[in-house]
UniProtKB/TrEMBL annotation:
GO CC, one annotated term: membrane
Main subcellular localisation: membrane
Membrane-spanning ranges: 12-31, 37-59
Gene source species: Merismopedia glauca CCAP 1448/3
Subcellular location as annotated: Membrane
Protein name: Acyl-CoA desaturase
Signal peptide: none
Length: 274
């Protein structure tokens, strides 16, 4: 009797080395010579700029789901902020996330949670997964836009340029905290949405998958932890649907709406929030 074996896709050593270097250099923050409260404050502000305005608001709610619209210059600003998170370029990020929603918790999902916590958290990136081959099909609205193409191709040189700028202003402490510690923090905050929010927390809606609402992930990701709400109503610019589900990104979008910078804001019917 022959027993079938399931093999993982081949390893992507480029990604493995890339992640190992960033995490390894971040450890230099433990040296007293690299510590300053100004550098820590810089990391916190850049965490919000890149992870909050960039990934959460820009890559995710604005571009991936088109939950609202902004003037093109402002869209490009948010996309640039997301590019600084170094989670791949915006075209790849959006393409993989759209596939995640289409095949959530199924084998075609890039980070299928049935494969375990660590697979959905980060191990999936260490392999040349099948969904990478279909990114162009899922990003027809952006993959020929010159600005998106530029950010996709040059997100690492852009980060190097920011690092040189930070070194000029604050030396190695600014580089270690403002680039590497911040990148690691944003990485894992984002990854917890893929892992923890398909393992822990509660479900308010039947979304057809394992997505959950997880309060502590929502705090780390400016509202992305209300993941079951999001999977149930993917079009909604607001993820925290109950009064206690604090959603800082929605507050930012609403502020932009008041200022006339966000239009066609899509929301869930009011009955769902009651």
């Amino acid at each position: 009797m022959t027993v079938a074996t399931i093999t993982k896709p081949p390893l992507s050593w480029y990604v493995i080395i890339y992640m190992a270097l960033i995490h390894g250099i971040a450890l230099f923050a433990l040296l007293p010579s690299n510590f300053s409260w100004t550098a820590v404050g810089l990391a916190i502000v850049l965490h919000w700029v890149t992870g909050g305005l960039g990934v959460t608001l820009g890559f995710h709610r604005l571009v991936t789901h088109r939950s609202f619209q902004t003037p093109k210059w402002l869209e490009y600003f948010f996309v640039f902020c997301g590019t600084l998170a170094c989670q791949g370029g915006p075209i790849q990020w959006v393409g993989l996330h759209r596939q995640h929603h289409l095949y959530s918790d199924k084998p075609q999902d890039p980070h299928d949670s049935h494969e375990g916590f660590w697979w959905s958290h980060m191990q999936w990136m260490f392999h040349d997964i099948e969904p990478n081959k279909h990114i162009a099909r899922f990003t027809k609205d952006i993959n020929e836009d010159p600005f998106y193409v530029f950010c996709q191709k040059y997100f690492i040189p852009i980060q190097v340029a920011v690092g040189l700028l930070l070194f000029a202003f604050g030396g190695w402490p600014f580089v270690v905290w403002g680039i590497f510690v911040r990148l690691v923090a944003v990485f894992h905050s984002t990854w917890f949405v893929n892992s923890a929010c398909h393992q822990f927390g509660y479900q308010s809606h039947d979304s057809g998958d394992r997505s959950t609402n997880c309060w502590w992930v929502a705090l780390l990701t400016y509202g992305e932890g209300w993941h079951n709400n999001h999977h149930a109503y993917q079009y909604s610019a607001r993820h925290g649907l109950q009064w206690w589900e604090i959603d800082l990104t929605w507050m930012t979008i609403h502020l932009l709406e008041i200022l006339g910078l966000a239009t066609n804001v899509k929301l869930v019917n009011s009955e769902v929030n009651s």
